[in-house]
Write a structure and sequence with these properties.
With 261 residues, this protein is of the alpha/beta class. The chain has 5 helices and 13 strands. The chain has 2 domains: 2-9 and 66-259, Glucose Oxidase, domain 1 (3-Layer(bba) Sandwich); 21-63, no CATH class. It comes from Actinomadura harenae.
């Protein structure tokens, strides 16, 4: 069994629409910090100088959103109302999603070379024909758009391709519950959607993939990476368990493909 990392890093040195703050406490600073904490909370006095090199443990503190790096969007991310039956009387949060959704056979669709904007259902059907496989219920569909090439730059947030409403509905009609992309969003860039709305007056062009999640329960994986390393469009298993953040609309994941090839 071979493991292929499908995740993008959380990297404070790259360009982000929402800044990442990554503060690092060195092992020596960590020793002093622990000594102070033990004294303050337990009344225990301890001299860090007795430790090897005066060091104990490093400590990283990060300030970031749950939509930074590779992450899974929960149904509650799409809105406060669910138009589908739910035992919670509301859309589920990320900590409430079934684990089996996130360990399933994968299907990778190649959308590289598509212009900025959206692709429709016909484009997905052509890709099904090309790979000789139609996604089955509960399979995890991954969209390889090539957006990873500009990750860490402003273009990652403006130059990519997403799904239109019909393409999203097609995958959901097939029983897909998790759709992933290597782009910033499963929808088109903001500029493209707003431009289309101003041109047509059609509200349906505004975040159609996300708003589909108000009518039908499903999850998205955004900001995947390394999809070009997959040996084929099928024949692998995706493992993408989201971090269990209570009450959150998303959770980070270290997405991995498992394959015998």
């Amino acid at each position: 069994m071979r493991m292929i990392d499908l995740s993008s890093p959380v990297d404070a040195s790259g360009w982000e629409a929402n800044d990442i703050v990554h503060e690092v406490m060195s092992p020596a600073e960590g020793a002093a910090h622990m000594a102070a904490e033990m004294l303050a909370h337990a009344g225990v006095e301890f001299d860090p100088a007795v430790l090897p090199d005066g060091e104990l443990l490093s400590l990283d503190t990060l300030t970031l959103t749950t939509h930074t790096g590779t992450h899974v969007d929960a149904p509650s991310h799409y809105g406060t109302r669910a138009d589908y039956p739910t035992a919670f009387a509301r859309p589920r949060n990320i900590d409430e999603m079934p684990l089996e959704w996130f360990f399933a056979p994968g299907v990778c669709l190649d959308l590289t070379g598509e212009p900025v904007g959206t692709v429709g259902a016909d484009r997905l059907r052509r890709e099904f024909d090309r790979i000789g496989h139609v996604p089955r219920p509960s399979e995890i569909v991954l969209l390889h758009t090539g957006a990873e090439a500009v990750a860490g730059t402003p273009k990652f947030f403006s130059d990519f391709v997403g799904l239109d409403g019909a393409a999203t509905e097609l995958l959901l009609d097939l029983g897909v519950r998790v759709i992933g992309t290597d782009a910033f969003s499963l929808d088109a860039p903001f500029q493209h959607m707003i431009g289309e709305f101003e041109r047509t007056g059609d509200r349906g062009v505004l975040w159609p993939a996300h708003f589909a999640g108000r009518r039908r329960e499903y999850c998205q994986i955004e900001r995947l990476g390394n999809l070009a390393a997959l040996p084929a469009a099928t024949g692998f298993t995706v493992c993408c368990f989201p971090v269990k953040i209570a009450g959150a609309g998303a959770g980070w994941t270290r997405a991995v493909a498992l394959t015998d090839r």
